[in-house]
Amino acid sequence: MKNKSITSRDEDFAKWYTDVVQAAHLASYSNVKGCIVMEPNGYALWENMQKVLDGMFKKSGHQNICMPLLIPENLMRKEGDLINGFAPEVAWVTKGGDKELEERMCIRPTSETLFSDYYSTLVKSYRDLPVKYNQWCNVLRWEKETRPFLRGREFLWQEGHTIHETSEEAEQETRGMLEIYRKFFEEYLAIPVITGRKTEKEKFAGAEYTLTVEALMYNGVSLQSGTSHYFGQKFSKAYDIKFLDRNNNWQYAYQTSWGVSTRMIGGLIMVHSDDNGLVLPPKIAPKPVIIIPIKESDTVNNYIDQVASQLEEKGIIYSVDRSEKSAGFKFAEAEVNGIPVRIEVGDRDLEKGVVTLVRRDTREKIEVAKDENIAEVVLKLLDQMQKEMYNRALDRRNSLTFEAHSFEEVENIINTHPGFVKAMWCGDEACEVKMKEIKGTKARCILEDAEPIDDNCVVCGRPAKHLVVWDIQY
Amino acid sequence: MKNKSITSRDEDFAKWYTDVVQAAHLASYSNVKGCIVMEPNGYALWENMQKVLDGMFKKSGHQNICMPLLIPENLMRKEGDLINGFAPEVAWVTKGGDKELEERMCIRPTSETLFSDYYSTLVKSYRDLPVKYNQWCNVLRWEKETRPFLRGREFLWQEGHTIHETSEEAEQETRGMLEIYRKFFEEYLAIPVITGRKTEKEKFAGAEYTLTVEALMYNGVSLQSGTSHYFGQKFSKAYDIKFLDRNNNWQYAYQTSWGVSTRMIGGLIMVHSDDNGLVLPPKIAPKPVIIIPIKESDTVNNYIDQVASQLEEKGIIYSVDRSEKSAGFKFAEAEVNGIPVRIEVGDRDLEKGVVTLVRRDTREKIEVAKDENIAEVVLKLLDQMQKEMYNRALDRRNSLTFEAHSFEEVENIINTHPGFVKAMWCGDEACEVKMKEIKGTKARCILEDAEPIDDNCVVCGRPAKHLVVWDIQY
């Protein structure tokens, strides 16, 4: 019964992943190196993610704007850390039409520079603060190795950029947006996440500190899934974002930025999907329900009409597959595309007085009396699936979360099966670098306000400062 | 009472336009030459336009996808007319990080090439057709002279690209999408449009023919506002989009593309706005209603709460301006931002048993008994405003639409006051070029199936083939 176009997840996880991406029509490779075509199913997922997140952003007082795609080199260079961090991976436009440009421009890898430049002209007084803007756009980073949704030269994301009167307010914003991301991952994507602070080595180029949302994939590898940065006055000094404060003195504004991207689609796949294709949490599925007639007849069609009007009444998005393909083919297609609930309607079932619902996540078949209100049954089922998918992901993560008390223990765990490894760290970059020797293990994040599990750093044995979660990553 | 930051429309239309753009916070100039920052009010308008159009596209069977931003030169050059048309105005990426690229890439000026390349791998049989995809994205054209929303190096748009089994189907799509644009302009933007075919000289590079939606601005200048192209098999031959037809023979697909852009925001401004700022048709206004307390008091606040709950019940989006600015200042701000209906709530009015509604379009003040259901009054008013704005725009257009029977007549009309000038044409490009001598007058479109108004071409006097609408343009 396994989908033949999909490699087994346990056999070759990387191959399984790209098989699912293609079989579920989420994306296909393009003739533009390192770039994908997001196909209808993939883009519809992104549209749904956008809709939910955009609502959350607007509710918390943010507005959308749109900045230019290109950044003149001179503007990009105003803040040293940022350009140093991004210079190796930006694409440069050097010609417009037939003319060499006087100043080359890069395609935005991120837009701190443009927002800062704009904010410097926008703000004059503390009365103009805070400014809380966001944009949905494409960005480009000249990556060498790419993988659909996880790492690509071009990707879609949102980048929020805010400026505030005080550091307290800006720090509150940094944490508030992290909280929105956490909520979105847990409540909509059914992905449990850990949150914490990036180390100095892993933080965003130019940030005072970076907070992160980290998720664990089915195979135990980590995915950095969203970040929220506190900049202090670093950019506002470089770009001259000044305002007159309440005492009529000039002050530099305090700044944040935060973003999530189409990478979340990769996370969704790698947490929930299986050997039969995509599995989607109902709350983010573009089409939660499909009705498939096993064989069309008047009885079947009448019953489908009845169910359809029940679904419409409850506002449940559904489709009916009346194409000429065989029922078996349609079932497989609905399955590979990750449609959460499939309603199979056949004459034999109806004669017995039942209709069959199939859950995509567990592939369980549920017989329901045909005279029940099917929409109500479906609503309850979708709700239950959403919760159970989260709980299964949480169980999986818990079973792949470890504590280590020595470097050897970290080594053993990662070499046996990767996962979140909690271990103490002295705060010294040398120890972080040493950790990379274990298959590239990195600090995912520092767990803030966590109880220490040891006194000493697992690498150097000196007194430890932080409890850190370590793992290999995408 | 005139807004001081806005030049008078009749005095200097061009200056008035950019004043409105800035005063209404639609866009501001950026430090990236030829590119703007779309500010919250401008972007919210675009979001609303997207929402309505996207709904129309989906309802007519289109799906969204996302193509790469960059096009390798070799791929771009496969169809000769397209590259010749766009070569002078594309931006070239020649470096990725520190490395010179082996093949330079251009930033998409439009994506026929990428869609065609993708479709060539997607389609194998007539059963796979039609494919009706659209994308919302940014594009770049290296324009020399730019004007916010009307012409910019970068703009946002949607580009639909479809392939079909037969020419009939593809031509039907080309016309169907033009009809959707017409409907959107008339019903939502309250802008009457003429539709027709572009001349060979003015059609899209690479198209068999181009259909267009043309609108007349307040000052009598034309704005090409949306286009729909029929490609026949031109791209499908260049990019090898082949399928097995019903007789098991290889066939090339028939193709279309169609697009509208943020340019529509420029059209909205230039058709409806006035010396006091932006005027928006209610159906496209991000926030159709604002409630302004003249001076806050318990009575005023209670009444506002009552109106607010009535508005919410009817699903009308509104805001309450409780900021510390003076009432006069708030009125002016609501006006410049083009909020269709302003509800002024004051103690004196309430004592008299009334509340004042102000229409933005006519600036008319309407006293309503305070005990009426204000939301119902507002709904009716918004509906009436929408219709009246369309009718006013139509009257204006009619008063600026002329018939000319000789070259001199065309010259006289355009030199006195530009507008749509209907005149016969022989079909010869030389006559079209001659027409340009009149301040750059161009053929807006050929009116298909129109009654001829003369036998001969107004330029050369030879037998005429088409009734054409001529005008100067943005």
Secondary-structure-derived class of chain A = alpha+beta
Oligomer: homodimer
Number of domains of chain A: 3
User: What would you call the shape of chain A?
Assistant: globular
What is the C-alpha radius of gyration of chain A, as a whole number of Å? 25 Å
**Per CATH, what is the topology of the largest domain in chain A?**
BirA Bifunctional Protein, domain 2
Binned strand content of chain A? 25-35%
CATH superfamily heading of the largest domain in chain A: Bira Bifunctional Protein, Domain 2
User: For the terminal residues of chain A, how far apart are their CA atoms?
Assistant: 31 Å
Total DSSP E strands of chain A:
23
Helix content of chain A: 25-40%
H/I helix tally of chain A: 14
Mind summarizing the main beta sheet of chain A? 7 strands, mixed
The overall pLDDT average of chain A reads: 96
User: Which CATH class of the largest domain in chain A?
Assistant: Alpha Beta
Please give the most extensive interface between any two protein chains, plus how many residues each contributes: A-B, 53 and 53 residues
Identify the CATH architecture of the largest domain in chain A: 2-Layer Sandwich
As laid out across the biggest beta sheet of chain A, the strand order is 3-7-8-14-11-10-9
